[in-house]
Amino acid sequence: xxxxxMFNPINKDLAMVEEQLIExxxxxxxxxxxxxxxxxKAGGKRLRPAFVLLAAKLFSNSVEHVLPMAVALEMVHMAxxxxxxxxxNSVLRRGQPxxxxxxxxxxxxxxxxxxxxxxxxxxxxxxxxxxxxxxxNASMRICEGEIKQMQSCYDVxxxxxxxxxxxxxxxxxxxxxxxQLGAMIxxxxxxxITALKKYGYYLGMAFQVTDDILDFVADEKTLGKPVxxxxxxxxITLPAIYALKYGASRQQLGKLLSSPELCFNQAEEIVSLxxxxxxxxxxxxxxxxxxxKAMQQLNCLPDVQAKDALYDIxxxxxxxxx
Length: 322
Prior knowledge:
Elements: H1 11-24, H2 30-41, H3 47-57, H4 67-88, E1 92-93, E2 96-97, H5 99-124, H6 129-152, H7 160-184, H8 190-217, H9 220-223, H10 229-232, H11 238-246, H12 250-257, H13 260-265, H14 267-276, H15 279-296, H16 305-318
Antiparallel strand pairs: 1-2
């Protein structure tokens, strides 16, 4: 079973999101249309729209009113990925060529900007300033997180709290906002909105820690990119932070991780040193802690099928073995 299997209650709704993602690329400029459509068809887990839909399903059987929001949040996410691929010089994402590798940096940047602008147009249809404020604030903080990640590359002195602040803005924030906005545009009260916002935050943290573990232990087919990609880019994640502090080879590891050249050329050796420490196990325990906190937030929410799905997603993360 995968996380995607737990989206069964909203499969038909996610199919509508997919259709609307394609329809939203309505530019008459062929080059932009081709690049943006390629981005959409590259696929993905569609986690953000799924959480918008599940949040709405807690309060109503019909989710038609949240479809524009679900599409918009996935477009915000996709725009950030296009820009990330330019910054990281990435050739593959999800096993498919990136927009950057197919059309170059300039077209990639404009494609990302176009997709982001389209998402804001869709959110504006709700005519609610509070929703725009939540999304704008999240977008700004995501940009801050990306800059912090760039500044932290090859920094072997960063600590646990530095890492948490970084992944909060990189991943947890948009998942949290997805749950929050799905509730805000549905018939929910303030307590329920806050609970879903916190659920999304904790779940997003668990997801990112899990992704960082997979960069060390999964195969390239599963990842859709080479194992150790973070290491090659100098991104020091939680397993590495633990190994740098407690691993038997921490001095050797520190020298390797602080060098861009060695990170790129000796990534496999670095991955081995980190996996030989207890860094993977430690990161897994952190992921479980966040997932358990996410589950606790569901107590005050309506007892419907969508709640079971949200619980199962968090339980899946905490029950995973590496």
